[in-house]
Specification:
The chain is an alpha+beta fold. It has two helices and nine strands, in the order βββββαββαββ. The strands form two sheets. Strands 1, 2, 3, 4, 5, 6 and 7 form a seven-stranded antiparallel sheet that branches. A two-stranded antiparallel ribbon has the order 8-9. Strand 1 and strand 2 form a beta hairpin. The longest helix is centred in the middle third of the chain and has 58 residues. The radius of gyration is 45 Å and the shape is rod-shaped. The termini are far apart.
Amino acid sequence: MAITIKIIAITCNGEPTGCPECTSQHIEYNARGPFEGWPSWGWCTSCNHSWEDVLMTYGVINTIRTTSTGRKKAEDSDLFSVRLPNGWLVEGELVPQVTVDDVRRASQIYWNKIVKPVVRKQKNKAKRTARKAVTGAAKAAVAVPAAALLKADWETRAGGWADTGQSIACPVGCDKGVFRLDSTIHDSPTVTCGFCQGSGVDPSA
């Protein structure tokens, strides 16, 4: 049976060890049984160097895989400690496997860093919109009675006269306050009526 372990830290008798080419401790060991004494194949994930390791046998790799501490919480490390056939003590840490607590912590970080600020922003925007609506309604509530009072005051001052919405056209014959001159130009030139001052309405009415 083929087994694989991935290491991110390793010591031998308390001294750091690793890739024979670049000394990196990021190593992947691949071993194949069934004999425990068969050497494993080491591969450095940093420099891509590979080698046959006669000390890290199939039996040693299998022991590390089955006796490492594992992880239950996000802050845990997957540690191992194993004695080689020659008596040397090898200790280290395996690449962490994702746990439920990792997912929970990641979800919490995602919520706090990404989702929550967006939700807060939307809430604040909704509050601002609501405040504007209330302010607008309040202004309208004040403006309508004020307009009614002004209208009543004007009608009183005007002796009961009320605007019917109708106006008398300028009597001099202008076209809505201007005289249009005949011309071959596409946009005919115009002259403002001097009587109604361009309003088109009889100012004396």
